[in-house]
Each structure stands twice: as C-alpha cells, then as structure tokens.
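Bug report (template v2)

What were you trying to do?
Predict the complex of my protein with FE2/S2 (inorganic) cluster.

What happened?
Run completed; filing so the output is reviewed.

Input:
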Amino acid sequence: MNRKEFVATACALCGIGAALSLQSCQKYTPQAVDFTLDLSSSANAALGHTGGYVISNNVFVMNTGAGYKAISMLCTHEGCVVSYSGTGFDCGCHGGRFSSDGTRISGPPPSNLPTYTVTQSGTTLTIKG
Ligand code: FES
C-alpha cells in the first residue's frame, strides 16, 4: 500500500467511525403510535392472561388483569430500545432503569417512559397516543 492508498483507506475508516458515533448519540424523540392488536391471533395469545404481554412497534402491551397497559420501549435519554426484566425496564445503552409502569428509577433518562391509551372493541385492541 502506497502513501496515497493509505490516506484514502484511513479517511474511509474515519468516516465510518464518525457515522457510527453519530448513530449512537441520537436525540430521543417521542413516538406517536396508532396500531391494533388482534386478540384472536396466536401471535397475541400472551395477552389472554394476566401478566401476559407482547411487544409491537416498540410498545410493550400487557394484560394487567384489570385491563391493558401500553408503554413505549424507547428510552427517554437517547432513544435506545429498553428491555423488560419482568419487574421493570432496563436500558442497555447507558444504564437507565424504569419501573414496570414506566416510571424513571435511575440513570440518565430525564423522564418516564411514555404510556399510550389502550381501548378494546371485541377482540381488537387499539393502542394510540
Ligand atoms: S439511551 Fe441512554 S440510558 Fe437509555
């Protein structure tokens, strides 16, 4: 590899590094959602019992026994997708933690996870907000 090729390769690698760096430092933007879940579908069978949940469109939807709740799974810090631990939500990007209702517990997230309205009509759940 001559000097010219070395410089060209180094610049290309720097560009990739800069692109990856920008991707990991994204600004959080709350998402508006409006979608339905079919309770008669086998894909949503978990919603048929208390404590069962599905994740769709980066939204966590759970049967609470008294109805349904829907919580955004986009961390309010920089928008990473959080994971459900069984007792709350954890963000693997910078250690943010939220309770099972989306309330911020610790870490850099500035606010709670947004929640959405869930309405049921027959076997159709509409998640909106
Ligand atoms: S994106 Fe930083 S804690 Fe979740």
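What did the reviewer find?
The chain is about 15% helix and 35% strand. The pocket of FE2/S2 (inorganic) cluster is lined by residues 75, 77-78, 80, 91, 93-96, 107-109 (CB under 6 Å).
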